[in-house]
Amino acid sequence: MVFPPFFRLADFMDVFDLVGDTPLLDLERLGPPSGVKLAAKAEFLNPSGSVKDRAAKSMLLDGLRRGALGPEKTVLDATSGNTGIAYAMLGAVLGRRVILHLPANANQERKTLAAAYGAVIVETDPLESSDGAFLSAKRAYEAQPEKYFFPDQYNNPANPQAHYETTGPEIWRQTEGRITHFICSLGTSGTFMGTARFLKEKNRNVKTLIVQPDSPFHGIEGAKHMASTIKPGIYDESQVDGEWRVSTDEARAMARRLARECGLLAGISSGANVAGALKLAATLPPGSLAVTVLGDSGSRYLSDELWEEPA
Predict the structure, then answer these.
(1) 52 counts as catalytic
(2) Angle (CA) 171 172 175, round 5°
């Protein structure tokens, strides 16, 4: 094909190039205290629809650089859904087969999206949650290590490094260095760890806080209750300046508020992040600027009762 003179192939992009550089959204409509700014990174605008695109891209590219992800290897990892979808999307671009171990009770949207990109899904015991999926994937890898590339998102330093190199710098630039607090929930902990490390290097006075479910038995998909689960190897408690607890009901109610008051269709963990951030904001002095994360799209929960107002 002959392109017109204004076309240059160097201008063309692929899916990898679309990851990151998401906008920072003002959440003033939710009513933070006067003089306190609350903002959120719109991570649902990543190409597969979640913040996990950043970590998946980083881990796969790291595997390619190290020669661990050769053309004969199959990508294998555990996931609660979002990272798996990101692996599947990027694996399609790389021409790599992808096998995902995830709890059988993960919602249908996540399974359908991963399968749409060509991933093979292995369902694990729902009672064992994400820990069970991780142990299942680890056993499969250890049985045939020559067959698989096992990124191991819970223990891979390339996961938080993605956020140290992209999410943190984006927030710093978008707030013109005025951020005072960063707060988000933990799954693998990669988003929090990498972003917190970067922000604290830029300004040691920035406070970095976590949002946690208020119970081990919760319904905030993608969020870990750290006291009752296998702690990721990449998690470093020294980066945590404080925490706020959020109930499943609070997270779900905030997801509905985001949709109906802000026009932002975000998921349950996003609701938890914003609920925790608003609790934090209520304690902050004027002039503070707190940033959180909208981790995925609410379109991944359409089969859930999330969008129905409780009786």
Answers:
(1) yes
(2) 80
